[in-house]
Amino acid sequence: MTKLLTVRDLYVQYETDGLVTRAVNGVNLYLNKGETLGLVGETGAGKTTTALSIMRLLPGNGKIVSGEIEVEGQDTLSLPEASMRLLRGEKMSMIFQDPMTSLNPILTVGDQIAEVVRLHRDFGEQRVQQRVDEILGLVGIQPQRKTEYPHQFSGGMKQRVVIAIALACEPELLIADEPTTALDVTIQAQILSMMNRLKRDMQTSMVLITHDLGVVVRMCDRVAIMYAGEIVESGLTEDLFAGSAHHPYTTGLFGSIPNLSVSTDRLNPIDGLMPDPTDLPTGCRFHPRCPQAMEVCQRLAPSDWASNTHTIKCHLFPGAEKREWSA
Amino acid sequence: MSAPLVRTKNLKKYFRTPQGFLHAVDGINMQVQRGRTLGVVGESGCGKSTLGRAILRLVEPTSGEVLFDGKSIVSLGKEELRKERRRMQMIFQDPYSSINPRMTVGELIADPIGVNGILNSRRSIEARVFELMKIVGLADRLFNTYPHELDGGRRQRIGVARALALNPEFIVCDEPVSALDVSIQAQILNLLMDLQSDLSLTYMFVTHNLSVVKHISDDILVMYLGQCVEQAPTDELFANPVHPYTKALLSAIPIPDLRYRDTPTEIIKGEVTSPINPRPGCRFASRCVHAQPECVGADIPQEEISPGHFVSCILAETLLDQAVD
Lengths: 327, 325
Known about the structure:
heterodimer, A: 327 residues, alpha/beta, eight-stranded mixed β-sheet, four-stranded antiparallel β-sheet, 10 helices, 12 strands, 25% strand, globular, B: 325 residues
């Protein structure tokens, strides 16, 4: 399989008032063509920062400290901004979490979709409008509604518009940042099945950011679990949901969600809180909350234990104690 | 069974809008037995929060009756209502906006005790605040901190402590965990369940999250556009959902289990119709795959298809037979 996206040893920081927030700390991931990778984690785990780094859309106080990002073998971090702008919307697109705020309230929906097409395609106005109608049809909105404004659409319909904008030029890589979190479950089901269909038809590959493990099962081929800016476990969806070896954080995450298919009297949450990203713990970032923490976990950051498609960053697994922790 | 602690009869709350009356809660009959949890589920805009508020009279019901421990709440005067309210409290959805950012944790928890004049000396109030902080799992050292210094989970613990401050019997929990991350959500759910058994509380738990509601509730009421479409004990509802909306809702939840990976989702077409001046008849009819001409025109009566299991659907019998076949 060919790799569409590769992220190597990515470090990202935000600086506010002299305080350094270490949001992403050595993330490695790849995406094969046609695949959907789920990026899972709680608030502040660094999922969105990773996505924004791939798109090179980090806010002004955010900085990629080191690492490499390749899209179709091309190093995107060294590209000038002008070339990056040509890639965005054409080769790679992003869907943001909140459809209520990611659309421009004073432009019609049709204009917002047409903008992408005009930028990236050498189309006459008639063909631009044709493409707008076509893509609206694909996301299940009547083309006549293109002259309406975002406030005239419901939340689910707005998210369809956002998806239409992202897919207007049939990008190879789609990053969807919690695309259905703000929506009701029945609307979520509509949107997810539509995204799966479009992804298949357009042969787009997708990074899906979510905190919902149920959505992961329904959508993803592979999964990466993030904690405190690191990927602590990754593998095929089967490795994560059927495998027996897991990072203690993954186990905690699964223990926290009430499951519809199994009845439990009590949930088994993870004690404590996410660490402060301006003051991360030494060694393994999870050790202060880990029920299985050992002495070595405080001193040394674990490296990846790997078995075929499955990797786990934890000292409980042999060969993981090599990497020395450094600031 | 003993008399229910909370009961509503044909409870309605309409809001006046420029386009007409918005039927937020439209004829709800429900009851919660003492010491049990009633889960109220539905999608945004179905009126579940308004129902919770109308029961506590945080919004004035348009018509209908709320009985608390056999006593009518709707007709109470201001002073009497204040007294009764001590017995029923609410935990709000958003721990970021439901507490005053300019008060410390200690002040926030002492507030309801002072307002209701339960305790008078500063020392006894302080002792009670520390006691409540202990009950909800807030460390003593947080007494003088402000909400912005705390994470969402701890803030929601303040909300819980405030609700418990007056020793209530009944608590309406309005989406108390939906703003929290899953690991924190689990901590709060465990806390609420522990408190229920320690203090023999009765809950009405309003949420859109069906996994949470299944975990915490004894009985479930499913709402759609202000009306109750189905009501049953939790196990019964999940085992034998009858109303087409309940079925679609249950099938729409993605289950984190590989066995359900390829289970086809029953996708309901369209979106929720307007709650303003709805036509009589089943409000789900326009989206329902089983819809018949009889579904619209007249309001649908609620039928008890098995003990404690109520459905509002004219096809209930037929759908039930199909399920058995």
